[in-house]
Specification:
Order of helices and strands: HEHEHEHEHHEHEHHHHHEEEHHH
Distance between the termini: 19 Å
Number of strands: 9
CATH class: Alpha Beta
Number of helices: 15
Length: 355
């Protein structure tokens, strides 16, 4: 977070600096069909960047001053048999590495390699503390495979990689949040991220909480918070599952606008992502966040990272946000990104106030 704040302070002072984070999506292919996934409503047949291109992106990012690579779960990264080569290249350049996985395709050989290269963090997408709940949401037999690989990882790893859980809230698991904390504790996981669900299709709509369940949610949040304190597990559950976010998924542009008031133009930005973050999709299209539209994108197949980052597309997006103009895709902003933006705003405010 601190390096991120340093870069953003440079932007606030009028200095254009390189991104701190790159989210590299190697594939949109996945071996699962989770009910809440965006892929349920999208055609995911896209071309993918070659291994050589992915490796060259990592090298160029290191030269540009990028400090962190995230390999998110827009598809399952381990579907690509070259993903370990990309991860090795990231660590070769001493950049922080985080990968999100559904946890079903890990093997003993993969885990041993992750430990060997000191990969920093693996986030497991898991939506229930038991097979009945998780497998309803993510597919038959998935829970058993995740548990098997968590045991494998726990037995082989030392300090790294750090294990995290990512849990998407639904009407099937809202009353089991504390059990997710307990499950995390059992496998040495020290960080559980809860996330309000963005609806992408009919199956997602069917998983939303009704009014009665929304009324019950605060006591389950409090119970999960108590468990997190008891077992010393980090979770930002009170912010990430607040009523404002639960009630406004798919209308996040309205929430973002409400938080973008203030006298300082940079501090009142609706979103900081285009000032520190770059996302590269499998086809090479580049934007500032996971939900960016094609009309607001560049392509790494045609330009260098530096040309994209300091180019017209990103500059226009930054200018629009400085004028508090949001984009059509902002309504489907990931709630976790919004929570992160609020944290950034508060930290920046403290730094600028003390200058």
């Amino acid at each position: 977070m601190e390096k991120k704040i340093e870069r953003l302070l440079d932007w606030a002072c009028g200095k254009k600096v390189s991104p701190i984070t790159i989210e590299l999506n190697p594939t949109e292919k996945c071996n699962l069909k989770c009910k809440s996934c965006w892929q349920r409503a999208n055609d995911t047949k896209t071309n993918e960047l070659s291994t050589d291109k992915l490796l060259s992106i990592v090298k160029e990012a290191a030269e540009l001053g990028v400090k962190e690579f995230r390999i998110p779960g827009s598809g399952e990264p381990f579907v690509r048999n070259d993903i370990l080569d990309v991860m090795k290249e990231i660590k070769k350049h001493n950049m922080y590495g985080l990968l999100i996985t559904n946890g079903t395709l890990l093997t003993k050989e993969i885990v041993e390699e992750l430990v060997k290269i000191s990969w920093d963090c693996i986030t497991f997408s898991i939506d229930g503390p038991d097979a009945e709940t998780n497998d309803y949401l993510r597919g038959n037999g998935v829970f058993e495979k995740i548990i098997k690989n968590l045991v494998l990882l726990k037995n082989i790893k030392k300090d790294k990689p750090l294990i995290r859980f990512n849990v998407v809230l639904s009407n099937k698991n809202y009353n089991k949040l504390h059990e997710m904390i307990l499950l995390a504790h059992n496998f040495g996981c020290k960080d559980v991220q809860f996330q309000a669900m963005t609806v992408w299709g009919e199956e997602g709509k069917n998983l939303l909480l009704n009014q009665k369940q929304k009324g019950e949610l605060p006591r389950y949040i409090e119970k999960a918070r108590e468990f997190s304190e008891k077992y010393n597990i980090f979770t930002d559950i009170e912010n990430s599952l607040g009523a404002e976010l639960i009630n406004n998924t798919n209308k996040m542009d309205e929430v973002i606008k409400e938080k973008s008031n203030g006298e300082n133009k940079f501090l009142s930005l609706p979103c900081f992502e285009p000032f520190y973050n770059m996302i590269i999709r499998p086809d090479g299209s580049v934007g500032p966040c996971a939900v960016f539209g094609k009309e607001e994108s560049d392509n790494i197949s045609e330009k260098t990272l530096k040309e994209v980052w300091f180019g017209d597309v990103f500059n226009k997006m930054r200018a629009s946000l400085l004028d508090k103009q949001l984009f059509s895709f902002c309504k489907q902003c990931c709630t976790a990104v919004h929570v992160e933006n609020v944290k950034i705003k508060n930290k920046l405010a403290n730094f600028l106030k003390n200058e």
